[in-house]
Design goal:
The chain has seven helices and twelve strands. It is α+β, with helices and mostly antiparallel strands. It starts with a strand and ends with a strand.
Length: 250
């Protein structure tokens, strides 16, 4: 019986290091493989970009979510959010378990920030009910984030059965820590670091994290451990630290 679940969340900065100095998506793939999570929530995933492909000889032939998944994560879903002349980017979920359905809901709050909420249902061996997994990247403005957080609550209350096991992860841009109370009080969601350390962790910038931007929230699980992945090796990659957590089904 699959009672244990290892998950990770990572804003990959479109496969580039800080200030876009280096294309590092190949190194990201190896680093994520070394974690070996069952399920990964990714933000700022480059689905296509003709300019990067022309400038970088080793730019992956596949969309980044498929390139990162390769032969390790057999199921993927990609929510295209921002579309421009050279390509598009959005959120993605990589999974060892089958993704039986997925939907990307537009939660953009104004024309200058395209944001989406990627909701997947996964079939986990020996589970009688699907696992609900939502990956999102909220806006930079406080009022936008509040409205997007409420849109997340509305969706969960509308389409996720009450008491169903649920993981919500991504870049919340929530340095004022306003989402915690809403998600806890309205949905019964718990931040994995609040469960293990008493509060969400600092994740940005990765080299010396100061702001608590990235989150993993869960319902229906015991949090066994949670880790923020930063330091010299990770700082060579994205400007955000990656998060991981080990969960046990309740």
């Amino acid at each position: 019986m699959t009672d244990f679940l290892h998950i990770a969340s990572y804003n990959i900065h479109k496969g580039f290091s800080n200030f876009n100095r280096r294309m590092v998506v190949h190194e990201m793939r190896e680093r994520l493989r070394s974690l070996r999570p069952d399920l990964i929530f990714l933000q700022e995933v480059q689905g296509a970009h003709s300019g990067h492909r022309a400038r970088h000889p080793n730019w992956p032939r596949l969309p980044q979510h498929e390139f990162l998944a390769d032969a390790v994560w057999s199921a993927t879903a990609y929510g295209k959010n921002a579309i421009y002349d050279e390509g598009h980017h959005g959120n993605a979920v990589l999974s060892r378990f089958p993704i039986v359905s997925w939907e990307n809901e537009d939660i953009s709050d104004h024309p200058f920030e395209n944001r989406g909420m990627l909701h997947c249902q996964l079939r986990v061996p020996a589970w009688s009910e699907p696992l609900h997994a939502i990956c999102l990247h909220l806006g930079l403005l406080g009022q936008s984030r509040e409205r997007q957080t409420l849109a997340l609550c509305d969706r969960i209350e509308r389409v996720v059965p009450h008491g169903a096991r649920l993981v919500v992860a991504g870049d919340f841009n929530d340095w004022r820590m306003q989402a915690n109370r809403i998600l806890r009080d309205r949905l019964g969601l718990v931040d994995v670091f609040e469960a293990t350390r008493g509060r969400p962790v600092r994740t940005f910038p990765c080299g010396l994290p100061l702001l608590r931007l990235d989150r993993i929230y869960v319902r229906g699980f015991e949090v066994r451990s949670a880790h923020v992945l930063h330091g010299a090796h990770w700082a060579r990659l994205s400007d955000h630290a990656a998060l991981s957590a080990n969960l046990v089904r309740q």
